[in-house]
Please model this.
Amino acid sequence: MHASARSPDWLRRSSSVTSGRGGAVAAGWVSRSWGPAAAMNFSEAFKLSSLLCKFSPDGKYLASCVQYRLVVRDANTLQICQLYTCLDQIQHIEWSADSLFILCALYKRGLVQVWSLEQPEWHCKIDEGSAGLVASCWSPDGRHILNTTEFHLRITVWSLCTKSVSYIKYPKACQQGITFTRDGRYLALAERRDCKDYVSILVCSDWQLLRHFDTDTQDLAGIEWAPNGCVLAAWDSCLEYKILLYSLDGRLLSAFCAYEWSLGIKSVAWSPSSQFLAVGSYDGKVRILNHVTWKMITEFGHPATINNPKIVVYKEAEKSPPLVLGRLAFPPPRAAAGPLSSTESEYEVASVPVSLQTLKPAADRANPRIGIGALAFSPDNCFLATRSDSVPTAVWIWDIQKLRLLAVLEQLSAVRCFQWDPRQARLAICTGGGKVYLWSPAGCVSVQVPGEGDFQVLSVCWHLSGDSLALLSKDHFCLCFLETEQGVGTAFGQRGDHT
Amino acid sequence: MGDWMTVTDPGLSSESKYISQYTSETKMSPSSLYSQQVLCSSIPLSKNVHSFFSAFCTEENIEQSISYLDQELTTFGFPSLYEESKGKETKRELNIVAVLNCMNELLVLQRKNLLAQENVETQNLKLGSDMDHLQNCYAKLKEQLETSRREMIGLQERDRQLQCKNRNLHQLLKNEKDEVQKLQNIIASRATQYNHDMKRKEREYNKLKERLHQLVMNKKDKKIAMEVLNYVGRADGKRGSWRTGKTEARNEDEMYKILLNDYEYRQKQILMENAELKKVLQQMKKEMISLLSPQKQKPRERADDSTGTVISDIEEDAGELSRESTWDLSCETVREQLTNSIRKQWRILKSHVEKLDNQVSKVHLEGFNDEDVISRQDHEQETEKLELEIQQCKEMIKTQQQLLQQQLATACDDDTTSLLRDCYLLEEKERLKEEWSLFKEQKKNFEKERRSFTEAAIRLGLERKAFEEERASWLKQQFLNMTTFDHQNSENVKLFSAFSGSSDRDNPTVHSRPRQKKPHGAPSGSPVCTSKLTKSLPASPSTSDFCQTRSCVSEYSSISVLNTTPEESKPNQVGRECTNQKWSVASRTDSQEACCSGCSSTHADAHIEKDDLP
Model:
């Protein structure tokens, strides 16, 4: 087929991956050979609740929650290192930036419990009392906790070093109201006072206000620092298309408005190099702004039909298991007669023109399923992955160097989430089914998660090194280890040079 | 038009017919007249005339009727029927001649009238049909007029309707515009109202929040607290500093430092990009100059002023280019210079390319009809002509030669020609003589050589004979020893491999050999061996074994049979003089050499087989 000509390695691997269930490589691993060059090994499934599973920032540990228990495992061996018991069901966890502490938020109780990895006996409990708690996060130094009270009355900054408590009043209740710069020096905070939007920039080291300015927005929806920490993007609510760019010192650098009188911005993403700002909107387009003039470079539409033969359309196709003649035993053995966990499927390269399945949005409901719901740049800045909510089964991958559509992955079911490998241009996608999908410039592959029963992958989470991938289902998680050997490593590494 | 013609023409023709008829009739004999009358009698009117006549004249009133007729006729201008009276008293006598003349004339008249009537009738008919035709035409045209009138009315109606529609649409558009305006107003008002409401609500919300804040926060809530086992150190290991004005200033400083760094970084990047682009520009410029310089001369010769000045500029620029210092200068002047020069050159290039284009198009246009370009036909004709000329010239030369030869022949015979011979210059004669002697010497040498060669050949033949005898004896011996060799094969292999000084990597082949050899030895037929071994002729001595030595011998013989030239058999002699073992190698190498020329294909085969062995 065409696909094999384009990316023989990957597809061959994929077929081998999807075909057989490999033997165990190490204790507890269910392995699946990924061709001669690489292998994908799956750990056994561990219990999990409310999708709370996070790698520590240094990549050594993996924290996961089971009801009120917090389990910290070694990220490689998956042996339990620590086990902490909280007072109630954990609703949110977060590692401190230095990987020394873990914060567990129990919103229902208005409690935050902090655990130390170095000193298991050390503990800290923050009670917000009757004020309630809706959000909790670490400051970048890992010694302060920012708690947002109910109704966004205030943000309390608790210090683990001193007894001091700081309060920040008037935080705005919005999509993304708190953002730290990558270097952890500054905090930008959306505020609302007297029916006007403001942004405060605070110095994280001593929580001093550095800048305070009003933004020209009707209803500020979110703010986000550029990765270099010098530019702050602020965008208006979906009722108006407006994105504003502020310098660190509060100067308005530029404002961009693509159109009026229609639903506006839905998602925003900075490229890792801070060079591009991708803005996804309700009109089903992504607009890329550049960092020199802050003007639009290009516009990526998401048409439902793809005609350009240069674009590779990977279509996930259900594959009926091949009947092996002569081997059919009568009566069929029990194992074979058991319910099939899921139908086999693999990618096919569809020949253009391809029409993608589109969803008719209900116009009379709030939050219509249209527009660009998710977008993410690859770590090497070369690719942009997007999902249009009106075409929920497709992931669009754009080549940023050529500013054109590169590939479209059409899944059988709606895409739940996708995440780029933090090291290379490799995208992991999950659709809530029993498979995890990987795309790289060389091709793409669908991998069935082995194990008893269904493992419905609702979310994925890459390890820092890109060597492993946590797959989260409703009540379990497992780790997928991608053993990349030299050959594959170089194959993937080619793209990395372009940065 | 046609109709008119048909209407007029018959009249004319009938008239002329009538005239001719008339003239002929006048000369007609009475018999013919009679027949005419018979013809005329076909007309129904004539009957009536007869009957009338019969009624008019009876036996009794002959006299009266004659007189009546006479009267009538005289009144019509006919001569009287009666003879002219000679006397008054004499009764007038009826003049028969006159009567007959009168009758004839009357008949003629009658005929004439009949003809005229006929003509008139036909004309009448024609006119009637014309009339009908015209009436038809008229009716048709009338109809047409009617339909077009109706159409016109329809179109007018449509036009009116369309106008009406247009007006309606205009109205609708206006209404829509109004609607839009209204809706926009409504939207705007709603938006303001919404905003207002929102603001109000938000204020209320804020108030509530404030109240809540007061209620929740100000009341000493014991619950709001942090329990911590012990405070941990800061991540950076430092102690927290007091908030002072200094820290604020320091924060500002740091912020600006970060910003500055970012801007510097970006500036650097932009500078790099700029430098890159400049390089590209410079290169472009250089290339343009080099591209344009060969064409510089021509326009200058043409004394084209504008290009001339520009070219001098180019030269200046080229001079500037050499100064590398301009590279790094990013000041405006340099930039301007660069861009200007590039622009100039670009213009020149453009004009040049355009000129070339024009030329090309001209050539294309002229290519077909211009006399300057020789057409293919002309070319071919010309070449044909030239060929013919050449042929003629050749023939001429031939004849001249023949003539010359004849002359020479005759001159040989004739004594007179001796005089001609003598007319050669003395010097020439001498040279010829010298050449002649030289030639003779060469001839002698050649003959000597030939003699020696024949001798050598005889000798070689003898030697070959001897050799063949020896070989036969050797083979015989071999054949006799065959059975003893068979079980000693492996030994021999070792011996030979050691002898050939093979490297270690050849050992596996050596070990694998015996297994292969066994079926070989059993039939012990030499032809089998040879046929097999011609193939397995080794490329290098390292893979030698005994079997191959045998093969070499047979191969050797075959070669010597094939190549009977004495030169090639020479090396074999050398081999023969060697000892038995040595000879086997040497001859093999020799035969290899021979093989190289003679049977390279077998050589290649040997290579292949050797490769396959391990």
User: Anything to note?
Assistant: The two ends of chain A are 32 Å apart (CA to CA). The mean pLDDT of chain A is 82. DSSP finds four helices and 42 strands in chain A.
